[in-house]
Amino acid sequence: MKNYLRYVLVAIVLVFTCVAGLAGGVVADRAWQTAFVDDEPETADSAGTAPDAELINEAWNLIDKHYVDREAVERERLTYGAISGMVMSLGDTGHSVFLTPEMLRAYQIDIEGEFEGIGAYVEMRGGYVIIVTPMDGSPAQEAGLRPGDVVLQVDEEDMAGKALEEVISQIMGPAGSDVNLTIFRPETQETLEVTITRARITIRNVTWKFLPGTQIAHLRIAQFSLGMTDELKQALKEIKEQEAAGIVLDLRNNPGGALDEAVDTASQFLSDGNVLIERDAQGKETATKVRAGGLATDIPMVVLINQGSASASEIVSGAIQDAGRAQLVGETTFGTGTVLNQFKLSDGSAILLAVEEWLTPKGRLIWHKGITPDKEVKLPVNASLLLPEAETDMTPEQLRDNEDVQLLAALDLLLEIIGAGSGN
Prior knowledge:
The chain has helices at residues 53-66, 75-88, 101-111, 139-142, 164-171, 228-241, 259-269, 312-322, 396-400, 405-422; strands at residues 4-6, 10-12, 16-17, 21-22, 26-27, 97-99, 114-117, 120-125, 128-134, 150-154, 157-158, 178-185, 190-197, 199-202, 206-210, 216-221, 246-250, 274-280, 285-289, 301-305, 327-330, 338-344, 350-359, 375-376. By secondary structure, it is an alpha+beta fold.
C-alpha cells in the first residue's frame, strides 16, 4: 500500500480528453506518496461508529417519493452527494475528499504535470470555492485571478452553497473554450467579471535567473511534479558554474507535489538531519532523513514563502528553517500536512482519507498552522509576484521599482548575510 501526502488544496484542472470526454475536475494534490487501495472496506468497530443505514434509507425514500424537482432525483447524484457529505462532515476541509470517477482520472493526469484547464488551485470555504493560487503561466494567472478570490458565479449561475464537484463541473471544459467567472476580492471589496480561455498547460517546475545587477540567483520552484528534482539539479549546476553569490529560493504560490521530490529538494540544501516526521493515528512517529549528495548545502540563501505555499513547499521550508540553514521571508504558509490513503470504490470513484499527519524535524505541526516566516513581509494589494522569466531584460533600477517587495526584502537580507560573511 502506498500513500498520498496531500496538501489542503484541490486544483481545478478541468481536463478534456478524446477518450473520456469531459473528464473534469479535481486534482487533489500533487501526487504525494501514491496510494491505491482496492481492498474490501472493513466493517465498523463496536464503538458505535457504524452508520445508521435504516435512517439513511428512510431519508433517501422520502426524497425519492416527495421531492418536486424530479430531474434532480437521480441515483448517482444522490449517492455521490451522500458520500461527499460523510467525508465533509469529518471537518477535514480541503484534505479528505470524495472524487467521482471523472475527478479521479483528472487527478491522475495532473500528477504528470500537464493538463487542460484554467490552472488554479482552490479550496471550499464557507460554502464558496476560494482561489488559493493560480499556476505560473496559466490562463487563471493571465486573467488576473489572485489568492483569496471567491468564485460567486460561473457563467452567471450562482455557486453559493454548491458542492465543490458541482462548481468544478461548471468550470471545466476543453482547451480553447471560454468560461465566465464572477469573482469577489475580499482585499479590495471588489466584484469582478473575468473571462478565462481554457488552455493546455505544461507546468514548468523550475526556473531561474540572476536578479538584475547582482550575482544572486532567483530560483523558483512552481510545484513538485514528478521528476522535478532533475530540473532542480540542472539549475543548481548552472548556478554554481556561473559563480552565484547566493540563492533566493522562491516557493511562493507553490501548492505542493510528490513527497519524494520534496525530500530530494530539501536534501539539495541540507547536509544532514531529517526532512520531516510522519505521525500516525496511534502516535507512532517515523522520520525521513536528508539524502546525501546535495548540490547547494553551503551557498548563502533565503527562502520566500506566502499563503499560497502549501504541502511539499511547507515540508521544504520547514526543514530548512528547523536546520537553521536559511531565513524565511514573506507570509505564513497555507497550513497543510496530512498523509492520505486513496480508497477506490467499486464504481471507479474514490475517497482520499487522512490517515497520518506530518511535522517538521523539530516536531512542529503544520496542519492548520502553517510555517511562519522569520521576517514577515506582506505583498501590497493587487501586487504581482516577479517571476524569473520576467527578469531577463530588466534593469537594476526596474528591479528596485518593482512592486514585489517580498523578493526585494529577500534580496536585501541575502546581501546583508553575504556582506557579514565576507567581513565587509
